[in-house]
Amino acid sequence: MAIYNEIAKKIRDGKPSPGQLLPSEHDLTEEYNTSRETIRKALNLLSQNGYIQKMRGRGSIVLDVSKFDFPVSGLVSFKELADNFGLKWGTHVHELVLLKPDEWLKKELQMTGKEEVWKLVRSREIDGERIILDKDFIKKEFVPTLTKDISEKSIYEYFENDLGLVISFAKKEITVEEVTEEDQTCLDLMGYKHVVVVKNHVYLEDASLLQMTESRHRLDKFRFVDFARREHRA
User: Fold this and answer.
1) Alpha-carbon distance 55 to 18, whole Å?
2) Domain 2-62: which CATH class?
3) Cys-Cys link to 133, which of 1, 106, 120, 216 (CB 3.0-4.6 A)?
4) For residue range 79-107, what is the model confidence (pLDDT) as tens digits?
5) Architecture of the domain made up of 68-225
6) Helix ranges (DSSP H) in 85-128
């Protein structure tokens, strides 16, 4: 992991740059004074996490990682995404309150009663830059307690490990919108005037709607990827 993290950081820093070859397994073995098997494991991790493409007979080609691959079809938390890339991350909680939903929020969360809803607003930081603003609305009937400490870590880990909730699927909507005053306050926008907004309605295994999340991403930092297979008809 130490070798993987060091090489991954070099690639993120642009040295080596996209399209270049990494040193050979033999050269890396000598550089890190370790076994070839250890180097192979580190290279496999780099390949799995999108840093390199291993080419038989050529070596390992460095890929462009200036943008983070965000899986469209998957349900991946910010913490999981950052950990997969071996990135230094942080979360800043701007708002955590219980509120009575208005008509718009009742519709979004498919509510008819007077249940309260958690509103959680967090900015997400990677390598010192705040690049995501997450706005979560979570039904209190499923999550009776939510704290700032939990919110600074991973609410999904809390939902699944502590509350025993089984998160099953989400419906997603992706749009590009102009930045708001809230975006300007909470994000390091670097002059960008638009953000990519991913709106999630997240459901439990019994198809109960758990939460609605609006994630606002800085334009230059993400690409949204999916895997599609064409069905061949006879």
Assistant:
1) 14
2) mainly alpha
3) 216
4) 777 776 677 789 999 999 999 999 999 99
5) 3-Layer(aba) Sandwich (3.40)
6) 103-108
Per-residue pLDDT reduced to its tens digit, 202-221: 999 999 999 999 999 998 77
* Residue 133, strand partner residues: 123, 216
Question: Among 130, 134, 132, 131, which residue's Cα sits nearest to residue 122?
Answer: 134
* Residue keyed to tokens 């642009």: 14
Give which of 214, 135, 121, 210 is closest to 165, Cα–Cα: 210
Domain boundaries, given as residue ranges, for the chain: 2-62, 68-225
Query: d(Cα 30, Cα 26) in Å, to the nearest integer?
Result: 6
For residue 19, give both structure tokens: 């399209």
pLDDT tens for residues 140-173? Answer: 999 999 999 999 988 999 999 999 999 999 999 9
- Give the chain's end-to-end CA distance (angstroms, integer): 47
Return the half-sphere exposure (C-beta side, CA atoms, 13 A cut-off) of residue 208.
Answer: 13
CA dist 11 and 15 (Å) reads 5
The DSSP result for 170-234, as a single string, is EEEEEEEEE--HHHHHHS--TT--EEEEEEEEEEETTS-EEEEEEEEEEGGGEEEE----PPPP-
